[in-house]
Amino acid sequence: xxxxxxxxxxxxxxxxxxxxxxxxxxxxxxxxxxxxxxxxxxxxxxxxxxxxxxxxxxxxxxxxxxxxxxxxxxxxxxxxxxxxxxxxxxxxxxxxxxxxxxxxxxxxxxxxxxxxxxxxxxxxxxxxxxxxxxxxxxxxxxxxxxx
Amino acid sequence: xxxxxxxxxxxxxxxxxxxxxxxxxxxxxxxxxxxxxxxxxxxxxxxxxxxxxxxxxxxxxxxxxxxxxxxxxxxxxxxxxxxxxxxxxxxxxxxxxxxxxxxxxxxxxxxxxxxxxxxxxxxxxxxxxxxxxxxxxxxxxxxxxxxxxxxxxxxxxxxxxxxxxxxxxxxxxxxxxxxxxxxxxxxxxxxxxxxxxxxxxxxxxxxxxxxxxxxxxxxxxxxxxxxxxxxxxxxxxxxxxxxxxxxxxxxxxxxxxxxxxxxxxxxxxxxxxxxxxxxxxxxxxxxxxxxxxxxxxxxxxxxxxxxxxxxxxxxxxxxxxxxxxxxxxxxxxxxxxxxxxxxxxxxxxxxxxxxxxxxxxxxxxxxxxxxxxxxxxxxxxxxxxxxxxxxxxxxxxxxxxxxxxxxxxxxxx
Lengths: 147, 413
Ligand SMILES: Cc1ncc(COP(=O)(O)O)c(C=O)c1O
Known about the structure:
The complex is a heterodimer of chains A (147) and B (413).
Chain A: H1 10-17, E1 30-36, E2 41-50, E3 53-62, H2 65-78, H3 83-96, H4 128-145
Antiparallel strand pairs in A: 1-2, 2-3
Chain B: H1 10-13, H2 18-21, E1 23-24, E2 27-28, E3 30-31, H3 42-55, H4 65-84, E4 93-96, H5 99-114, E5 120-124, H6 133-142, E6 145-149, H7 162-166, E7 169-175, H8 187-196, E8 200-204, H9 216-219, E9 223-227, E10 238-242, H10 244-249, E11 260-264, E12 267-270, H11 284-300, H12 302-324, E13 328-330, E14 342-347, H13 352-360, E15 364-365, E16 367-369, H14 374-380, E17 385-389, H15 396-412
Parallel strand pairs in B: 3-15, 5-6, 5-7, 7-8, 8-9
Antiparallel strand pairs in B: 1-2, 4-10, 9-10, 11-12, 13-14, 14-17, 16-17
Helix pairs in contact in B: 3-11, 4-11, 5-6, 12-15, 13-15
The complex binds pyridoxal-5'-phosphate.
């Protein structure tokens, strides 16, 4: 059995205990809602995109340490990036979670920083959905924002 | 040992279950997810293997001896099921894929034949999705009205409004025991209330049939269903019981082989009960396996199992609240007589997913999530809970292992 310490790395627990960018954004910011049907977790991503740049991002909802910390770290990482950069960043993350679509090129040079700590989740396949919930929801919000 | 009957010993029964004998990383497996699905005793595994090695053949279709013998074994299991729940006769026993399919069968066969726009189907706030969604599908199709029996603060059905809710109802469909709260419902009383109002009574018996003696005639129910896999039998098999006259009057559900007595280019005639509702090749080996499971359960004694689980409930409730006090919230009745040994709980603010992950390090298997009862989860104010459920093979040592593992979870978060 893989060790639990691979899953609950300190940086993950830190973002779980003290989530960054928790809250909501008023319109014209868009939001998208994601659910993990397995466990009933839900998450909302609020996104303020202007001139092709993510100006602000916040999240709300309930979830386990993995989904909450993954989303928290994601919000920190994407703020200030262009839409194209965010999309490439998400692809890089999903690639790490072994979920990348093979047809889409992944830029291995992108540095995930703290988010690398989530790599251990791959050893616990049922938890991959927890780690990616916020990211998939972000993609939906992004699509909404650039519509 | 807990249990009123000295002949009953869960620690001995446990030895019949090979899965439970294994050690992982030198520690025993603590299986507390039987409300989800139960483990299988040797007699079920061996009977199915022997059947597939020596006797496997199609049923109802061929004249050769092998097939005739397989048919006999299959039908003998049906007789065992009829006796096990005290059905009037074995024509009232229909084998389905699982309890979910049985509920769909009722909603779409009986429901389509008997329910029109505006007709009322009464459900409760503690139903499994299997007893909600088929009715919602029928609501979309037919415009029927769904009503709900609410809960009291101590996790019982609030029966004060029952007569009002039943006014004009054609169906009252409810669970005999909540798979989340553990609450055991007063089935006889609910069936009788349904009939007084002119409604039929459908009992989702998934959580009670494996754990206590069942008498569908004493219940006064019209339909009941349960799954083989929760009662030591194989998966892929469910049972629908219905009053013969009702089943007789219903149109078929799935069409195909086995369910017809005649097919021509211009139409078909249904087979007699129960074949009418068993279209296609059934789960033959699984039915034989369920027969073995019933033999096993009868050998242990359903009343003994119920007594054991009452004793386990007392132990678990006292031990967990004694050790953890306000750090644990158990969503369910306190009185062991009014509940099964299924406990949904919240612990020290740790998310159930994280909790079950940490418990897994100690080989303690609990379910985390919404338990296919999302409306109920909303009502008790939880997105998810952890759930530990005990069965005939669980001992107080399993309960203690759960508590020890909970302690270790606090260290991480
Ligand atoms: C109360 C209740 N009803 C229905 C079901 C559905 O059973 P199955 O999944 O075997 O069809 C379950 C099983 O989880 C249950 O607990």
